[in-house]
Design goal:
Largest sheet: 12 strands, mixed
Structural class: alpha+beta
Number of domains: 2
Transmembrane segments: 48-67
Keywords: Membrane, Transmembrane, Transmembrane helix
Distance between the termini: 42 Å
Helix content: 10-25%
Number of strands: 20
């Protein structure tokens, strides 16, 4: 997915279309990072993030960077090509893929750890000293037993090419389709299925190519992916061929170096009563909701990234999304005094806000944090805006955060008046 996102970032659209896309995010105030802070209902968005955090299944990844060099077509098969560069030590046959698609799989009891230098050498023998490697081991845990799910790695070549690699116990399940019969490569006695995928040209006529390869070493499945501009085909082919060959030469990864310790983990759906009774964050939930809003769902989540309570209420196409957590260091820079209107007043920044908000203010304007003792109704009104979306109900929208001591309440609202939201926030006991 990494390369696909990079490709999409190169696509230009008209101002009118840009405005429509921004409007569809429900934030209407993007930060330039295509970041939507709130969507209804918030819990569903975070659950999707957890499923993604639950990582992408073997070999189902797509795209990284960009390239161009003529390909030598295999006789009788226009969909198969291989490098014509005789200097490539490990030549691969690349089958043309008709499509690629990402498929996510949830990891039960997911936790992870970054690999140390010693672990990198054990997992990638022969490569750790040739490439700059960063990697994350992802584990599943059930009944207090941890097991390796997969390892995600990024390898940076001396010339700056970044390759994604995933390995896992089991077999690679490739989620792409070839438009012709595939041929495999035999490298050092190992069967390798390699392919390439061509993106459509963007508005500037730039086309990208993604190369990928999958193979098995004993009981471990490997998936390698590298992409870039069409003008760099030759370099990309050489790099992925080199990496696949070196991985096979180095042999199966030594996974005995891992001794995982299961951290505190919790991801539990709650009733509204259970959410209100939560010892850490239940006191920071609204007691009375604006007329018509009904409880939708709640989630208590504890993992290595967060310790938070999520609760959502809905009314037709309106919503009130509530996230409660402890203030983290990364949140500090979003705290703003009421007097600094440039940090939060949306009337200062016409849509699309990706164009009107200064770069250095984008994060704080996207989601400012007010101290509860300073919060005013005018500040809440300054966070309120409307977007007329086709097929959507009109309604006032707002998103911001409020700090109660060291407890942070983040809200996203559609279809409720600022006066009602201000009253709710004032009514929460510190």
């Amino acid at each position: 997915m990494k390369a696909y996102k990079e490709y999409m970032n190169n696509i230009d659209v008209s101002d009118a279309l840009h405005q429509k896309l921004i409007s569809c995010t429900d934030a209407g105030m993007g930060t330039g990072k295509a970041r939507t802070q709130y969507r209804a209902p918030l819990l569903r968005r975070y659950r999707a993030a957890f499923a993604c955090l639950a990582l992408i299944l073997l070999g189902v990844f797509m795209l990284p960077r960009f390239m161009e060099h003529p390909l030598a077509l295999m006789p009788g098969n226009p969909g198969i090509s291989q490098s014509v560069d005789p200097s490539i030590k490990y030549p691969l046959v690349f089958n043309k893929a008709a499509r690629l698609a990402a498929a996510d799989m949830a990891i039960p009891g997911h936790f992870w750890q970054e690999l140390t230098a010693d672990e990198l050498r054990a997992v990638f023998p022969g490569l750790a000293d040739m490439r700059r490697i960063t990697a994350t081991a992802n584990f599943s845990s059930e009944q207090n037993v941890a097991a390796l799910f997969n390892i995600d790695a990024h390898m940076l070549s001396p010339s700056g090419l970044e390759t994604y690699l995933q390995l896992a116990p089991g077999q690679v399940q490739l989620d792409y389709a070839f438009d012709v019969e595939t041929k495999t490569s035999d490298l050092l006695g190992t069967e390798v299925t390699a392919g390439y995928f061509e993106t459509r040209p963007n508005s500037r006529g730039l086309k990208n190519i993604i190369y990928f390869a999958a193979f098995q070493l004993a009981d471990l499945a490997y998936y390698v992916e590298l992409g870039g501009p069409e003008a760099e085909k030759e370099a990309l082919q050489a790099e992925i061929s080199e990496l696949v060959g070196r991985l096979i030469e180095g042999g199966r990864a030594d996974l005995t170096v891992f001794h995982p310790v299961i951290p505190e983990l919790r991801e539990e759906g709650l009733t509204l009563g259970e959410a209100r009774a939560d010892a850490d964050f239940g006191a920071y939930l609204p007691t009375d909701l604006p007329e018509g809003f009904a409880f939708e769902d709640a989630l208590r989540s504890i993992n290595q990234n967060q310790d938070a309570l999520f609760v959502n209420w809905t009314k037709s196409m309106g919503y009130i999304n509530w996230r409660v957590s402890l203030l983290e260091d990364k949140d500090q820079e979003r705290i703003t005094p009421i007097a600094h209107k440039e940090n939060y007043d949306l009337s200062l920044y016409p849509l699309p806000r990706t164009d009107s908000v200064p770069g250095e203010l984008q994060d704080i304007v996207d989601n400012p944090i007010f101290l509860i003792d300073e919060l005013t109704l005018d500040a809440v009104r300054a966070r309120t805006y409307e977007i007329a979306d086709a097929g959507d109900e009109p309604g006032q929208r707002m998103s911001f955060s409020v700090l109660y001591g060291d407890v942070l309440v983040e809200i996203g609202v559609k279809g409720a008046a600022p006066e009602g939201i201000f009253e709710i926030l004032q009514g929460i006991k510190q």
